[in-house]
Specification:
Length: 817
């Protein structure tokens, strides 16, 4: 019997040993140096396993037997953890720490960028790191707004308006640390952010996750720098610049100061960044003393983090903007007396609590209060005169506007579910209360003919003071479904509700990412998204604003008929939220170890866009005047008649070198059309056409390239930025303001910019300095900023405003070495 029992015991041991040995499991968690979870980090264990972290920073690795494995972890914006030797036996829990990328110096040989061939990323997304924002010599390197020009899908129009992915500025959602920072009045991106205080900028186009709404064309997410257990400080451009163009003068000055460090080591940290801007713009073609416009602006970001416990983290932000600009609108055809001053203030206070609930579950709750105010003040009370050779008189707009947004957001990440793969469920929503006060006291303007005679006069006889409010609600559900190591789906649904117009929009989202080959060096991705735009307070306030009254005159100066009154109205029902259908497809390929190429396609079709249509004369010809100029009374009613079309194909190549060095180049073909005339002086289009026409930011061909690399000499580096693009479209008009020929049927000349900078790192008494000298517009291209567009004038179609070559000097100071 003892022999039998021994045989049975031996048999049972032999069949249970593999089961016991298979129980080798690593429950890993990836956090940053402050203990905050790092989501979407790529984790590799030798060649046996590859995955990514969930929103709580967790991942699970299962091996068939106890083993020694080399674990590598990488995430864009963090230093890569390479070949961490880990012994796995039984069930273990290990936390891995990856450090946030901060200012990188040439002595450091690390790489902070991950491969774009990441199956876990299903969105069409571009990433700008904080070091790229600070190191690449784009025009006016103090400005995040200008830094976005490095993105292949970003275009600035002739008035400075920002257009991402072929959209209007208010068709993109702008987020700062997860909260909406778009202007509550117009929906535009008017926030000044200190570039040294920015950790990263992510831009999503077309196919965006269901967690993002209120932007049919994409999302721009800005993440602030965090403090660490060591103090860091920096100062940039603390010496004023000198402008030697047309004489020696004090040039633009952009001093920035930053400090970060611990409040309590290991538990709480802060980051404080301040930026000031003194601008002195020179307008060529105007007399000395009347050819400059100046302004001052300041911005401050205070970001804090406190680890209340190992599973509970509190984040807080306070952002302040002050902006005072004089002689706004100064141009070759618009002299000093036609300009006006703009004073604006903005602040954002937010707090967000992140609670890790265990088993891969995470809950985030946040609140933010955003205040924005702006005042426009002309230099006098005379009528504004729109002549055929330029403007005169005083600008007609005198206004004070203020708005607030209170935002509450909540989102939760549920434990992973195993069924035909792994499901990571995410759900959440937000609630916004918006309030707007407008106080307008416009004077009026006259339209002058070719001989100087008054053709029409538009007055705003009664001032307007009004209050508008709105409530926005949204909710979403998302399933990130990892079917296998090589295939991931993202399935989501979102609902957005706007109480002011009584409309709800449902947004289904679908995306996939697939690595078809065993090498893992190719990724094919794409998707579909139905997206919606938010309602702007500026649009809601239009019917309560001043009523323009237009008088038309005969050639002999007598009044032609009775004055025409233009009124605006919003229907009580029947309006829908503007919507876009977005189709995306892309291929990413790793060619060599650090060389990647990509091809991306985006197709967007916008419908139900807002446009005020003159219901009494819907076929009225389009005009370029600041306000409606009808021959008879007009009733402009808000409709959903606007349609937009955008198609783009982008080809890019990127090489990552050691440290933060590398280069990228991209060519983009695109087509941007609309059936509504876009007037920058109006919150929404006032005219709807029967055919599609080019928008004023349509750029069929664009090449952008940037690079940052070492020179043969120690502590020397070189950086460059190049942009070549088609000229922007514009319309021409007759003396009365009516568009002649095709809307936006003309173009500015091709625009070309090449900026080059050389930087030297030096150490004095233990302190580090970076001295940079560079040239903007190295080839001295004209790149005109204006054109005489009035038919029949002597200078008709003459381009004006030569950009010229600019020399740039920058000094940066860092903490002790």
């Amino acid at each position: 019997m003892s022999i039998v029992r021994a045989a049975v015991a031996s048999f049972l041991f032999s069949i249970t040993l593999p089961l016991w040995a298979a129980d080798t499991v690593l429950h890993g968690r990836v956090v940053d140096e402050n203990g905050a979870p790092v989501r979407d980090a790529q984790v590799k264990a030798g060649t046996l396993w590859e995955g990514q972290t969930d929103p709580t920073g967790q991942f699970t690795l299962t091996l068939p037997k106890p083993s020694d494995v080399l674990i590598s972890i990488e995430r864009e914006g963090y230093y890569k953890l390479t070949n961490q030797n880990t012994h796995l036996e039984g069930v273990q829990e290990i936390t891995f720490v990856i450090n946030t990328v901060r200012e990188v110096f040439q002595s450091e040989n690390v790489n902070a960028q991950t491969s774009p061939v990441d199956v876990g990323q299903t969105q069409t997304e571009e990433h700008l790191s904080g070091t790229e924002v600070n190191d690449i010599p784009y025009k006016n390197t103090h400005s995040l707004r200008n830094a976005l020009g490095m993105y292949p899908g970003a275009v600035q129009d002739i008035t400075g308006g920002l257009h991402l992915n072929g959209a209007e500025e208010n068709q993109v959602l702008y987020l700062f640390n997860g909260f909406n920072i778009s202007n509550p009045i117009s929906g535009q991106f008017n926030t000044l952010l200190p570039v040294e205080g920015i950790h990263s900028v992510d831009l999503s186009a077309g196919q965006t996750s269901a967690e993002f709404g209120k932007g049919s064309a994409g999302v721009m997410r800005v993440t602030a720098e965090s403090g660490a257990d060591a103090f860091h400080y920096t100062a940039t451009d603390f010496v004023p610049g000198v402008d030697i163009k047309q004489g020696v003068r004090v040039g633009n000055w952009y001093p920035r100061v930053g400090v970060s460090g611990p409040v309590k080591k290991g538990h709480a940290w802060f980051s404080e960044m301040f930026q000031s801007e003194y601008t002195q713009a020179l307008i060529t073609g105007l007399p000395n003393g009347q050819n400059t416009r100046s302004g001052w602006a300041g911005s401050n970001i205070l970001h804090g983090q406190a680890n209340l416990s190992s599973s509970n983290i509190l984040f807080a932000d306070f952002l302040v903007n002050i902006n005072n600009q004089a002689r706004v609108g100064l141009a070759v055809l618009d002299p000093v007396q036609t300009t006006y001053s703009v004073d604006s203030q903005q602040y954002l206070g937010s707090i967000k609590d992140q609670k890790y609930l265990g088993h891969g579950a995470l809950l985030e709750i946040g609140y933010a209060h955003n205040y924005y105010s702006i005042r426009d003040k002309p230099l006098g009370e005379n009528l504004f005169l729109l002549g055929t050779e330029g403007a005169s008189g005083n600008y007609y707009l005198h206004s004070q506007q203020a708005a607030t947004r209170d935002q509450v957001l909540m989102q939760g990440f549920l434990p992973k579910v195993e069924w035909l793969g792994t499901h990571q469920f995410q759900l959440g929503g937000d609630l916004d209360w918006l309030r707007y006060t407008g106080n307008f006291q416009r004077t009026g303007y006259e339209v002058l003919g070719l001989t100087g005679q008054v053709l029409s006069e538009t007055l705003f006889p009664n001032p307007a003071l009004f209050h508008v409010s709105d409530t926005e609600l949204s909710a979403y559900f998302l399933d990130n479904w990892r079917i296998s190591k090589d295939l991931q789906l993202s399935l989501g649904i979102r609902a957005d509700r706007d109480e002011a117009i009584g409309a709800t929009g449902l947004s289904p989202r679908l995306a996939f990412s697939w690595s078809p080959f065993e090498s893992g060096k190719t990724k094919v991705s794409g998707g579909y998204a139905l997206t919606h735009d938010a309602v702007t307070l500026q649009m809601l306030g239009r019917p309560l604003d001043q009523t323009p009254v237009t008088t038309t005159f005969n050639p002999d100066g007598s009044v032609a008929g009775t004055p025409a009154i233009s009124r605006f109205a919003i229907p009580h029902s029947g309006l829908s939220l503007p919507r876009s259908t977005n189709w995306t497809a892309s291929i990413d390929q790793q060619v060599w170890t650090r060389v990647f190429v990509a091809a991306k396609f985006l197709r967007r079709r916008g419908s139900d866009g807002f446009a005020f249509l003159n219901t009494l004369d819907p076929s009225a010809p389009p005009s370029l005047l600041p306000a409606p100029n009808p021959q008879s009374n007009a009733l402009y009613q808000l409709t959903n008649l606007r349609r937009d079309e955008y198609d783009s194909v982008a080809l890019s190549v990127r090489q990552m070198l050691s440290g933060q060095y590398g280069w990228t180049a991209a060519y983009t073909w695109s087509r941007t059309l609309s059936n509504a005339v876009i007037d920058p002086n109006s919150p929404v289009p006032l005219q709807e056409l029967t055919t599609f026409v080019r928008t004023t930011w349509d750029v069929p061909h664009r090449i952008v390239a940037r690079g940052y690399g070492p020179l043969p000499w120690k502590n020397w580096s070189v950086s460059a930025f190049l942009e070549w693009r088609s000229g922007l479209p514009f319309s021409v008009r007759d003396q009365t303001g009516l568009i002649v020929g095709t809307v936006n049927g003309y173009r500015f000349p091709i625009n070309f910019d090449l900026n080059l900078a050389v930087e030297r790192m030096i150490t004095l008494h233990g302190y580090r300095f970076a001295l940079r000298g560079g040239v903007d517009n190295l080839t001295d291209q004209a790149n005109p900023s204006g054109v005489n567009r009035v038919l029949g004038t002597a200078n008709y179609l003459t381009f004006l405003g030569n950009e010229g070559r600019h020399f740039v000097v920058r000094i940066r100071f860092f903490e002790r070495h």
